[in-house]
Amino acid sequence: MDRKRLVRLSKFLSLHLRHQPAGLGLTLEPGGWVPVADLIAGAARVGFPMTPEDLDEVVRSNDKQRFALDTTGTKVRANQGHSADVDLQLEPAEPPAVLYHGTADRFLDAIRGDGLLKMARHHVHLSADTATAAKVGTRHGRLVVLEVNAAAMRAAGYTFYRAANGVWLADAVPPEYLRVTPPPDA
């Protein structure tokens, strides 16, 4: 599959597996799973044909591991990033002492006042390293990388989760646990 088709398919899957499953007549099962056959049929109904092989290639090749197939290959899901109502069945996990969040500098004043909020999504997304945080943050404008004192948050009773693709998740990060840190190669 050419790169352009791969990107279009990834964006299509993100839209429908994270945000608008009803647009394809899908219902997210616990964990965010949907039957592959239902996804392919729904995509065909809206004029976006795909094959099981196309889907497998997107799942395998996505650099952020946004998607997963179950062990039988009959169900697919987005690993995190949902705004659609779904029980992701995440288990609490012990985070590393420090996590990171990449964002644009235009959001910094609001973050300093309110912290990191999940907004329309289920969780705030955090990274285990500055390089990943920077990659995410550069999509939104001039980069700022925030260091999250995850150890202090855990000690204060906050809960963290780890998605199947390694993204760390929290309900919110209050401003007192944040500090600006230099991005990688700064």
Q: Could you characterize the architecture of this molecule?
A:
Its EC number is 2.7.1.-. It is an enzyme of class 2 (transferase). Removes the 2'-phosphate from RNA via an intermediate in which the phosphate is ADP-ribosylated by NAD followed by a presumed transesterification to release the RNA and generate ADP-ribose 1''-2''-cyclic phosphate (APPR>P). May function as an ADP-ribosylase. The chain is of the alpha+beta class and 186 residues long. The protein has two domains: 3-78, Arc Repressor Mutant, subunit A, CATH 1.10.10; 98-181, Alpha-Beta Barrel (ADP-ribosylation fold), CATH 3.20.170.30. The chain has helices spanning 3-19, 36-45, 52-61, 108-114, 130-137, 150-155, and strands at residues 34-35, 67-69, 75-78, 98-104, 116-117, 124-126, 143-149, 160-162, 168-170, 172-173, 178-181. The strands form four sheets. The chain has a three-stranded antiparallel β-sheet. A three-stranded antiparallel β-sheet has the order 4-7-11. The termini are far apart.
Question: What features would you highlight for this structure?
Answer:
ADP-ribosylation fold; 22% strand; 6 helices; alpha+beta; single chain; 2 domains; three-stranded antiparallel β-sheet; 186 residues; Arc Repressor Mutant, subunit A
